[in-house]
Write a structure and sequence with these properties.
The chain has twelve helices and five strands. The protein has 250 residues and is an alpha+beta fold. It has a five-stranded mixed beta sheet. Helix 6 runs antiparallel to helix 9. The longest helix is centred in the C-terminal third of the chain and has 21 residues.
Length: 250
Amino acid sequence: MNHEERVQTANELTEMMVKKYGDDVLLGGIFGSTARGTDTEYSDLEMLFIVRDNSKAKSFNFAYKGMPVTAVVQKVSEVEKDIAEIELEWSLKMGRLFNMKVTCGDHDILKRFRRLLDSVPQDRFYECIAKETPLCYEGLGRLKAVPLRGSTHEARLFVAEVLMEFTLLTAIFNREFINHDYLGGLNEAFKFKSLPTDFQKNAKKLLNWANTDIDEVISLAEEFVHNFVVFVNKNGIKLKEYDSLEKIQL
């Protein structure tokens, strides 16, 4: 299926949604590679519909002519929560929302969502970073265990995990969106205003992991993570790590 056929399918699905749910559907659109116009004959189709809070519409997915189709249906209150309650996937969700190719509905709702986003205090972004950063050490830990387990073939998975999670954290610090899944967001992150030391240089070296000795890969990943921690510390963000169970609030 080519780009034009994929867009036509999206338009037909939009018509079906509006026919079934009427004015419950406030906004609909395409996100992902089809919205960007970078889709290929092997791409899927991803759509987002925003509906009223009392709507019975639900997310759905199916295969159509060999193409996976995913339609995410969110109530207005769910979208508002995604905007205001910052978590690790925030940048991806915002990229999907604000950069979708609209197929139906009122564009003004996006303006309202944007005003809500602009009103979110910076402290919420920093609180997310403080909480999530220590939890993202896991990918680095898995990478460091590769020589111990003799599972060199898994190194690429753990390198990707480190790069992706710390790219998302960097996006949150900058209040920026990520529009590509997996490692496609790295090129977007390279253009952010504020970056840790050697962020781009070390990320590109890690992407070349297959041609690098595993010990050097681990060293690069450690430096990549360390530089992020130094970066956020310099910006007044104190990471939430505990050295005593008594300090944890259950």
